[in-house]
Amino acid sequence: MRLGSVREMWRASLPLILGGSASTLMTFVDGLFVAAYSVEAFNALVLAVPLVGTVTAVGSGVAVAAAESFAASRARGARQRAVLVSLILAVLASTIVVWAALAFAPEIARLAGLTAAGALALEYAFFRQYWVWVTPSFPALVALTLLVQLLVSLGRTGAANRIVLGAAAANVVGDAVLVGALGLGVVGAAVATDLALAGAALAAAAVLRRDLTLPRRVRASALARPLGRQALSAAMIFCAMGIFVAGDVMFGRLAAAHSPAAVTLLGIAAQMKSVFLIPTRGVCAAYVAVFGATLAARRAGRYFADYWGATSLVAAFYAAGAVVLFAFAGPLTRLYGDLHAGLLADAVFFLRIAAMSLLVLILGRVAQVGFVALGHPYGAAVQSTLMVGLAYAGAAVMLARDGVRGLAVGQLAGSTLASALVVLWFVTLLGRRRARDAGVAEASAPALARPVLDARAT
């Protein structure tokens, strides 16, 4: 692996890391403020976050599809059409998401494992409040994810960084005022998110308006094929990420069926872990763009270099996360307020298991989007299904046998097995593609050299 590959991947990844981290940091800060407001409100937020993650998955799918299409387009007109198609796709996706969120709100609450009666009745009430008020942020979240990707593709990384960091800072201020000072609870957290994301999306659009021109006239027939291609790529990424979101919902339901304490423990571990997980979506998006260009040029010698370059960045995030979560598990759990002694000990245990799971996931993270770039989009969905299915099976078995701590141990065991299987599969496919493209290059070399040799012979 060349150091240059890591540097190239880092330059392409940084603004996308910040863009992908924006919603996670907002959710993390929301959780800290809401936990101080009410444990039941925090549990409701824990159960809502995976469902909000569906919107993040939609935005990431659209953004990755746009990056792939933009990288493959050489001519100015083709790039303009690619951008226009991505904007159309974002509008369509946002419309569907908002409609579904509002039309099926009661069903979504039940999907999270909440009902108006029972042990989690308060959580149900807080969930419904949060969901109604956070839904207006969904179009802005999709738009911001896409616009940050477009800024990076145009080389405006500095502007992208400032916009995303500004959104995170605005959310912190909003939480401090609306939740901390005014005591608005989950409603205040949702409104703070709405305002921060909307402001960031508008700022990104203003920057792009100066640097990006769209085609003034274009036939609908000329957009049909690129729209279909981008929609397919976005759907594959969404399905792969959506399976993980579905897994988070399933784990939430499993914890809710066990006890409110299990929901709290799962939420603390998931939020802390997500601080290091979500930024790597930016690395994966950059890998799609860089590796896509490498594939288009058939630079077979760089195929594994690109993979290891991106994986090195993932390893840096995950290894740092593992150290932080393991070494500072006690202080980190205290950020969520005064937990009683038994719950505090369990929370420390959950964080340390989460630290180990980060190390397990290093090699398979980039492989997920690598399947799409290699022309095997089903591979990403299979990987997600394996990860979620095996982790859930392990968690269900261990929870029944060992109690609440088994939830964390079972997840770790299932993820370890799934990661090993997926990495082996992806590396095999990548090696075959390298051998095939290298063979094509070698076969064409003599044909190019032969006229020169013949000239020397005469």
Classify the secondary structure makeup into a structural class.
Answer: mainly alpha
What does the overall shape look like?
globular
* Computed Rg: 23 Å
Helix content: over 70%
Distance between the termini: 44 Å
Q: Note the total helix count.
A: 17
List low-confidence stretches: 447-458
Tally of extended strands? 0
- SSE succession: HHHHHHHHHHHHHHHHH
Task: Report the biggest beta sheet as strand number plus sense, adding barrel if it closes.
Answer: none
Give the oligomer, counting copies of the same chain as homo and different chains as hetero: single chain
What percentage of the residues does DSSP assign to strands (E)? under 5%
Give a structural overview.
This protein is mainly α. Helices cover 88% and strands 0% of the residues. The protein contains 17 helices and no strands. The chain has helices at 3-37, 39-72, 76-103, 105-111, 121-134, 138-153, 157-181, 185-211, 220-258, 260-277, 280-297, 303-327, 329-334, 341-360, 362-373, 377-402, 404-457. Helix 2 (39-72) runs parallel beside helix 11 (280-297) and helix 6 (138-153) runs parallel beside helix 8 (185-211). It is globular and about 65 Å long.
